[in-house]
Amino acid sequence: MGLFLLLIVPTMILGFWAQHRVSSAYNQWKRVPTRSRITGREAADAVMRNAGIYDVDIVEVPGHLTDHYDPANKRLALSRENYRGYSLAAVGVAAHEAGHAIQHKVGYKALQARMSLIPLTTIASQALPFVILGGMFFGALGLIKLGVLCYAVLTVFQLVTLPVEFDASKRARVQLAKLGIVGQDEMPGVVKTLNAAGMTYVAAFVSSLANLLYLFALSRD
Description:
This protein has 221 residues and is mainly α.
């Protein structure tokens, strides 16, 4: 129990804090329109065209903050509020996803590593609930060791994700300023939104690492 309180509980609190921070930042800056009145879709398109990218589809998807870039299908998906919206938050998120498209085009190594880990990560994620439940309730030491392996995969994936996400945000800030989509006095809203979003990835890595260490300790008992 002491190890659980030391490793798991603090990371749970960190995760809740990170989610609260990104929600607060997004809700604040989605109310502030850009002077350019350029929508998120238009911002993403402008960023990619400036980088010589013309073969990525920009589509609208349902949900809240469901924005993502799919490198396998060259598809940039934006949630409705970011696809159609012209707030500082909307163009920031859209440009961030366009940053991933640029990474894909230039062969950014961390993105390539992340893509290569996706199949293994998917298997580990799907197996983990059964492994953990079996190990905890039935005392199956072998399952706990398998859980350690699953969390090791997830931890590596989360670690590789960090430079991918922070680099995409950096590219977004540079391009938004360069293209005149956001003025220098408007940039703090974009930066705060993207920084808050970045903390969720840090929290995910810390949580995965804590769970890995916790299960590893249990497997040694």
